[in-house]
């Protein structure tokens, strides 16, 4: 029996050693856990502070930008070839039109004081110095029709064009180029 009792005592001692080792490990891990929790709390607070600061900064920037935008008037961009022809209205300058359209209007406006009548698209093309090829004539005809549709010119029933401005009703659809 003594040997059985000795074996039990040895097992008890081994269990005590193991329990003490685990307690020490738990104490060490508790310290590590506390340090990790402190670090986590600091990072959460830092992120929340940053989010609040950025939100406040964004609100200030938006307010400043909106105020500047209200004060700022943006000039109309210079027209480019192929740009949209707006409907004519009183006080609208020729500069809202692309240069090609302005040149067509200039040719017809110069004829009016001289008492000359309407012009065919081919005559306008020649006056512009573009020649008489059908591609050039049709390009000028297309532009002159667009100007007439938008009230910048008058198109006669014969297909001829003359200077004259008139307001036109434009459907809700966006004007074409």
Indicate the proportion of strand residues. Answer: under 5%
Oligomer: single chain
Strand order of the largest sheet: 1-2
**Model regions low in confidence, pLDDT < 50 over at least 5 residues:** none
Secondary-structure content class: mainly alpha
CA-CA gap between termini:
111 Å
The major pleated sheet works out as: 2 strands, antiparallel
Radius of gyration of CA atoms, rounded to a whole number: 43 Å
Give the helix level as a range of percent.
55-70%
Number of helices: 4
Give the CA-based shape: rod-shaped
**Arithmetic mean of pLDDT:** 82
Number of separate domains: 2
Order of helices and strands: HHHHEE
Beta strand count: 2
Describe this structure in words.
With 177 residues, this protein is mostly helical. It folds into 2 domains: 1-74; 94-163, Winged helix-like DNA-binding domain superfamily/Winged helix DNA-binding domain (Arc Repressor Mutant, subunit A). 60% of the residues lie in helices and 3% in strands. The protein has a two-stranded antiparallel ribbon with strand order 1-2. Strand 1 and strand 2 (161-163) form a beta hairpin. Helix 3 (121-127) packs across helix 4. The longest helix is centred in the N-terminal third of the chain and has 70 residues, at 2-71. It is rod-shaped and about 140 Å long. The termini are far apart.
């Amino acid at each position: 029996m003594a040997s059985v009792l000795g074996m039990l005592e040895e097992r008890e001692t081994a269990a005590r050693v193991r329990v003490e080792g685990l307690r020490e490990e738990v104490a060490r891990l508790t310290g590590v856990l506390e340090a990790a929790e402190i670090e986590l709390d600091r990072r959460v607070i830092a992120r929340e502070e940053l989010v609040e600061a950025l939100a406040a900064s964004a609100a200030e920037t938006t307010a400043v930008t909106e105020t500047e935008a209200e004060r700022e008037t943006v000039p109309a961009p210079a027209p480019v070839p192929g740009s949209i022809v707006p409907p004519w209205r009183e006080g609208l300058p020729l500069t809202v039109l692309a240069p090609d359209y302005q040149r067509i209007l200039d040719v017809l406006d110069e004829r009016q004081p001289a008492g000359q009548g309407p012009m065919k698209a081919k005559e306008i093309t020649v006056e512009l110095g573009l020649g008489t090829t059908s591609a050039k004539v049709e390009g000028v005809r297309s532009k002159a029709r667009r100007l007439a549709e938008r009230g910048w010119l008058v198109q006669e029933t014969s297909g001829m064009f003359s200077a004259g401005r008139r307001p036109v009703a434009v459907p809700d659809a966006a004007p074409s180029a």
